[in-house]
Each structure stands twice: as structure tokens, then as C-alpha cells.
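Customer escalation, tier 2.

The customer says the design service returned an amino acid string that "doesn't look like it belongs to this structure." They asked us to rerun it and document both sides in this ticket. The original C-alpha cells are below, unchanged.
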């Protein structure tokens, strides 16, 4: 589970992260100390749970929550606040829940468990097995399981499949959203890969790692893994 903690006070962030790791030891947690930093972080990663302090230094938490809902509709948002009156506002804008400062671990466990159940329920909904791609004035329905990886190419993306390549004028972040729920992972700002199509992982420059994908046409293609992505990739592959 990927979790974001957004709070402009370091002690509050540290305490919440500590309690979350006690509850979900396997969680991958990122943190931001402002609304702007949070938006930048969320332009690069997708999160399951997002904890937002109501009073951020540069913007209201309610404003950030509204933006997060647009960026990641499936994410569960929880307000972290010292003021219980914000509970009403939370439900008005569709926030999943709220927790009060100082944090109560039992309350946090309940909120996390409820969010986990909601996420699991959403994942049981049927997923489409084909991805529509606009290519040369036609729409090609690509079988998702045939996609090996997707990479950025200037302002477009190239979708590499077992049956050939397709280019479409969409961002990699958009493909990440569309393929949410399938076994795809963004290893780098430029690459989104099918975890089932990874052939090899090996050491790379500056203590990083890189991967090779299945398929003879990809045998000489080396895809670098961002340092901040290595731990999560290993977790997803159970290595």
C-alpha cells in the first residue's frame, strides 16, 4: 500500500508515519511539507491513502484534497486536524475520513482498515482487458497483457507490445492511471512497465539497478530504475 503524509509540521508527520508503519509495516510512505510539494509528489506517483493536514503553510488542506481527488480518483483521503469541526467539511467534499491530533492509534487503525476495505472492494470490480489507443486516425484496442512497457517520447508515449509499437499523444501519468489495477509499475519518470514482462534485474550506475524486458526486440533495451523506486519494485516482485 502506498501512503502519502502531507503536513507542514515535521513532528506531526513523523508521529503519523511511525504509527502507520506499526499498523502496516509493509506500507510505502512518502511525505511532503506543503501543498505544492504534495502536488509535485503526486504528479510522479499514485497513492492509495493520502493524509492531509487541514492547515498547510501554503494552502488549505481542503483545496489540496479537492485537487488530489481530481488527480487520483481512487485514492482515499483522510484529514489530519486538531479541530473536530472540520469533520463536516471532510464529508462535504468526499474525503474518506478524518483523524484528530494528537493521533490516537486505535482510531487510526479503524480508519486505515475501513479505507483498506474500500480499496479492496474497488479492486474487485471488473477491469477491462483492453486499452484503447488513438493511432493514425484510428482507435486500436490493445490487449493489456501484451503490453511490455510504455516510455515517454517528447510529448507523446510509445506503447511497446508483443505485437508492435503504438504512439499516442498522452502523458505517462495518464497511462499509469488507466492501467491502475493491472500489474504495471512506474520504475522511472520515463518508463511504465508490465511487472509480468520483466526478464532480468541487474546492478546499474551509481548503486542503482536496471531491468530488461521479455521479447527479442527488447534484448538490447536497458530500462533504469529510479533510486526511490527500487525498494517498492523489489516488494512488488517479492525479491
Amino acid at each position: 500500500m502506498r501512503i502519502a503524509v502531507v503536513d507542514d509540521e515535521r513532528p506531526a508527520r513523523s508521529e503519523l508515519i511511525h504509527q502507520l508503519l506499526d499498523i502496516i509495516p509493509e506500507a510505502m510512505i512518502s511525505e511532503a511539507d506543503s501543498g505544492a510539494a504534495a502536488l509535485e509528489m503526486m504528479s510522479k506517483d499514485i497513492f492509495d491513502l493520502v493524509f492531509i493536514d487541514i492547515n498547510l503553510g501554503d494552502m488549505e488542506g481542503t483545496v489540496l484534497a479537492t485537487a488530489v481527488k481530481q488527480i487520483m480518483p481512487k485514492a482515499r483521503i483522510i484529514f489530519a486536524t486538531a479541530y473536530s469541526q472540520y469533520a463536516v467539511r471532510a464529508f462535504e467534499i468526499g474525503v474518506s475520513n478524518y483523524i484528530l491530533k494528537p493521533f490516537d492509534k486505535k482510531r487510526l487503525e479503524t480508519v486505515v482498515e475501513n479505507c483498506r476495505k474500500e480499496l479492496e472492494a474497488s479492486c474487485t470490480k471488473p477491469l477491462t482487458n483492453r486499452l484503447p489507443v488513438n493511432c493514425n486516425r484510428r482507435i486500436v484496442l490493445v490487449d493489456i497483457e501484451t503490453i511490455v512497457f510504455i516510455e515517454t517520447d517528447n510529448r507523446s508515449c510509445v506503447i511497446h507490445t508483443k505485437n508492435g509499437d503504438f504512439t499516442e499523444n498522452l502523458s505517462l501519468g495518464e497511462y499509469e492511471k488507466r492501467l491502475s489495477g493491472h500489474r504495471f509499475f512506474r520504475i522511472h519518470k520515463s518508463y511504465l512497465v508490465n511487472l509480468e514482462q520483466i526478464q532480468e534485474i541487474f546492478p546499474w550506475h551509481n548503486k542503482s539497478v536496471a531491468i530488461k524486458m521479455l521479447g527479442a526486440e527488447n534484448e538490447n533495451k536497458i530500462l533504469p530504475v529510479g533510486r526511490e523506486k527500487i525498494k517498492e519494485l523489489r516488494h512488488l516482485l517479492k525479491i
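Tier 2 assessment: The sequence is consistent with the input. The longest strand covers residues 147-153. The helical segments are 10-23, 35-42, 61-71, 86-92, 105-123, 172-178, 230-237. Sent an explanation to the customer and offered a walkthrough call.
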